[in-house]
Amino acid sequence: MISTNDIRRGFLDYFASQGHTIVPSAPLVPQNDPTLMFVNAGMVPFKNVFTGLETRPYVTATSSQKSVRAGGKHNDLDNVGYTARHHTFFEMLGNFSFGDYFKEQAIHHAWTLLTSVWGIPAEKLTATVYHTDDEAYGLWTKYLPEERIIRIATKDNFWAMGDSGPCGPCSEIFYDHGDHIFGGPPGSPDEDGDRFVEIWNLVFMQYEQEANEIVGELPKKSIDTGMGLERIAAVLQRVHDNYDTDTFKALIAASTSLTGTDAEGERRASHRVIADHLRSSGFLVADGVLPANEGRGYVLRRIMRRAMRHAHLLGAKEPLMHRLVPALVAEMGAAYPELVRAQPLIEATLRQEETQFRKTLDKGLKLLDEATAGMGEGDTLAGETAFKLYDTYGFPYDLTEDALRTQGLHVDRAGFDAAMAEQKRAARAAWKGSGAKASDDLWFDIAEETGSTEFIGYSADIGEAEVVALVKDGARVDTAIAGDTVAIIVNQTPFYGESGGQVGDSGTISTDAGLRATVTETSKQLGRIFVHHAVVEAGSITVGDAVKLQIDVARRAAIRANHSATHLLHEALRQRLGTHVAQKGSLVAPERLRFDVSHPVAMTPAELADAEAAVNAQIRGNGTVTTRLMTPDEAIAEGAMALFGEKYGDEVRVVSMGTEDGGKTYSIELCGGTHVNALGDIGLFKVVGEGAVSSGVRRVEALTGEAARAYLVGRDERLREAAATLKTTPDEVPARVAALLDERRRLERELAEAKKALAMGGGAGGPAGPEQVGGVAFIGQVLDGFDAKGLRGAVDEAKQRLGGSGVAVMVAVNDGRASIAVGVTDDLVGRITAVDLLRKAVAVLGGQGGGGRPDMAQGGGPDGSKAADAVDAIRAALAEAPVAA
């Protein structure tokens, strides 16, 4: 029996022998079609080639394209497990011609491969053509009798890329599984039976249409074909059911072995669901999709949880899905190496999701059993109950629907939708009640209409998206033109919206039609709408446009480096200062980082240097940075640091980086920001400042990468300049500066002594010797340029010249200001105080107050030109109130 792997290889080898280029499968996340949730057909990666927007170095190609149909209008999820041919994940074999060969050769290739290479009997095959496509009909008569060439007038045999663009008739090839199976040929009343199964669709792109009207023929006619690998495997392995082919049999054998149950009767569908959903889950995770509550991640979560419920039905008491991954890799890893590379991530993601879901599964199923007790076949479960299962226990609507399917029960979808709408209304009211701005109504309207923005920037710097809303001057608009400043909202984006201290991305948004918009910043509204604040430089942008998004890669790289550095710094400070250290705020910008932590005192230079060295040691170690999704409780149990006061949902992103001696992870934190892939990408870390923010909160400022290097280069240049000025080498600058400071202090002391000696010998305020004023010996002097710190000493010396009794006043004048000291000998303290005399002088100097003891007081004022007048004021005070002996 030919294996599925051999069929895939044989298909590609055949077309390679016919001059086609083998093109590897594109990822499941579309790179060039923002309107698609997932790649769902073989032609999707070639869409821009067909439309002429892209050229490639080949004109014919062949591929085996990974595809998923589990969301939007292409959704096979509900039927998977219950039919022979529905899958969430499938492989589409295809051959393509971009203006090279056309109908005749396409039909010839298909017939040759099916009958000559694979040996399918010609009598088993039937072809359909579009009812007006006489050319294709005539070509098929070379291979089939006319009774097995069927004209079809429906859209099943006419394909279009959209309302406008390339289109053309199709020719489908059907395989007859035999009259023992119910069903009729295509176009007959019994065509929906399983006897005749479509195995290959040949699309002849020959027309151009506008607004669903054909306007002419394409200048270069093209071919797009698609053949489901699972269907042709069933044919070539001579089984009627896709789930009886070798790949599925191997996966089902693994699940029967691990659960100890066979795949018969009621358990048959469960094993099939698990096998199918294992494939889609594994490939989606390998292509970068992780479980989430929005967008692609939510579709993946629905797929995973549907499989996990069926594992529960089979009696699995512990998480099962992750234990099946080795079987998946064994079957498909050779053809798709990304499965092998991502195996640890796939296993960890499945284990985590199933562990989390099992905590609520039993409670949810119990509620479901209670709600359906007494119901009979055909009855309907209330929508409010289905919503409670979704809101409280994480049961997607379709999981509830699937759980009731075997009992013949239905779910009130309208009631479910009404309960969902009421929850949104309550959320809006609660948001308003929290003091939110009136403008938030606008964002609520957009969120309810368009859904949340899917962030794809963890793994992509560029992307394509559909414009879902535009806001200009606080109001929604349909179009923005050159010169407009506009907020652009798209369905998915690589631009990070400012949050968690990390600034938003900047970059460009463009179209092939001439739009060029510069995104200056990106913000988040309501925590889920990414808003691109942009200026339209050229062209125009309209709601519904498909646009290309490109972040500023260099700026993002600098931001990533700074963000990862804050995690390393946080741990370094905790290890050196104590576990009381906790993040209180941060700024992660491209040019710098700022990190606020709880700590009661200033950090010493040695502590900062030690922390800096620890961070750089981790950078040199170049450890990988990993991310995982888990519940907040599980994350904290693993040692992840959470920010006090931060609100976390049911699931958090855990970022781990670096290693310590013994292999322990250096830093584990809850974080939704962007980070480097390896710590070596940070390059360098340099602390440039530390200071107080508020009581008990310290701020560390630092640089990384090129900014840190430039800082050190600049500092080194300034050191060389200083060395040149000092006429020494950079290494000798500290010693030279110390020597100069010592010399300066010596000269300052000598100068002070000289000034003091000069001042004591007489000054502008009067003679050096005492005079008699009001019966009291008095010395009053103005000392220009005298250090105010020496005033008390000068007063003490003057008091010695008073002969044991009297008043001494010294005024120092520096830079226009005056400082004054007044001394009174002990014998006069009971009759006159230094403080009273001082206040009279201070008032003259334009100052206020002043104070000290009764025998010594000191003060000053801003007007040094009145220094002599201040001395006179004290002299006058003594003269007006003579002190009796």
TrEMBL record:
Family annotation (Pfam families): DHHA1, tRNA-synt_2c, tRNA_SAD
Annotated residues for binding of Zn(2+): H563, H567, C671, H675
Cofactor note: Binds 1 zinc ion per subunit.
Keyword field: Aminoacyl-tRNA synthetase, ATP-binding, Cytoplasm, Ligase, Metal-binding, Nucleotide-binding, Protein biosynthesis, RNA-binding, tRNA-binding, Zinc
UniProt-listed Gene3D superfamilies: 2.40.30.130, 3.10.310.40, 3.30.54.20, 6.10.250.550, Bira Bifunctional Protein, Domain 2, Threonyl-trna Synthetase, Chain A, domain 2
Enzyme Commission number(s) from the entry: 6.1.1.7
CDD domains, per the entry: AlaRS_core (cd00673)
Any Gene Ontology biological process: negative regulation of DNA-templated transcription
Domain Alanyl-transfer RNA synthetases family profile: 2-714
Known function: Catalyzes the attachment of alanine to tRNA(Ala) in a two-step reaction: alanine is first activated by ATP to form Ala-AMP and then transferred to the acceptor end of tRNA(Ala). Also edits incorrectly charged Ser-tRNA(Ala) and Gly-tRNA(Ala) via its editing domain.
Protein known as: Alanine--tRNA ligase
Species of origin: Sphingomonas melonis TY
Underlying gene: alaS
